[in-house]
Specification:
globular, about 260 residues, about 45% helix, 8 helices, about 15% strand, alpha/beta, Rossmann fold
């Protein structure tokens, strides 16, 4: 990969594992320096070693994204340690299933999920914008396909992610005069540690809804994120970009595959 992000500073929340970790390594391979935060110091330390092995500088911080002061501290520490923030990725999220009709969703659970899945995104954007307002930058919010078609049993997560899409558009309009682009990425079903169990038990069902005929790899997201952060995407802002392999593009994507086999 060419060093299209050479010397840029990329901050990722929830960067210790899964999509966040994969993005950190992709950006490091593209020449960026990294700042990552998360709740588990052991995972952050392991990731930091992998980033250093790619020749990139790295700063990591244990932080709770539900705490606005810790979000602001993370942003300020990045500038102090690495000199700037060029790209900020709001990746931290939680998804606790529950049926609203059975009163599984308590006020405490609602508040916890909204604090990380929506409030942390808003204040992460705010903290990043404060550091970017003189030099510009890119903010990428990681949304979910549940923002497009809500998921039964995940009503809180679905509505929080739908709000992230709307927030992305609002902030893109507000931040444009400062040279700050704001986008969201809407992943389909991506193979990660968190989705491994669901894939094991429901693989064929999941693939049956996807036009591409396969589940997503983390690189399907990470390579697009790097592109969106670069000059080639300088006229893209306010967009909610779906990366799902054409999930539910049609009601019966398997039909096309069956026709191909029969010809």
């Amino acid at each position: 990969m060419s060093n299209e992000m050479n010397g840029k500073v990329v901050a990722i929340t929830g960067g210790g594992s899964g999509i966040g970790k994969a993005m950190a390594l992709e950006y490091a391979a593209a020449g960026a320096n990294l700042a990552v935060c998360g709740r588990r110091v052991e995972k952050l330390q392991l990731l930091a070693e992998e980033i250093k092995a790619l020749g990139a500088a790295v700063y990591y911080q244990v932080a709770d994204m539900a705490n606005i002061k810790e979000i602001e501290s993370f942003a300020q520490n990045i500038r102090a340690r690495l000199g700037a923030i060029d790209v900020w990725i709001n990746n931290a999220a939680i998804d606790t299933p529950g049926l609203i009709s059975w009163q599984d969703i308590t006020e405490e659970l609602w508040d916890e999920m909204m604090a990380i899945d929506l409030k942390a995104v808003f204040f992460g954007c705010q903290a990043a914008a404060r550091q970017m307002q003189k030099g510009g930058g890119v903010i990428i919010n990681i949304s979910s396909f549940a923002s497009q078609i809500p998921t039964a049993g995940r009503s809180v997560y679905s509505c929080a992610k739908a709000a992230v899409n709307s927030l992305t558009k609002s902030l893109a309009g507000e931040m444009a005069p400062y040279g700050i682009r704001v986008l969201s990425i809407i992943p389909g079903y991506i193979k990660t540690e968190m989705t491994a169990e669901g894939i094991k038990t429901r693989h064929d069902e999941l693939v049956s809804a996807i036009a591409a005929g396969r589940l997503g790899e983390v690189t399907d997201l990470t390579k697009i994120a790097v592109f969106l952060s670069g000059e080639g995407a300088s006229y893209i802002t306010g967009a909610n970009i779906e990366i799902s392999g054409g999930k539910f593009t049609v009601q019966n994507p398997l039909w096309s595959w069956q026709q191909k086999e029969n010809r």
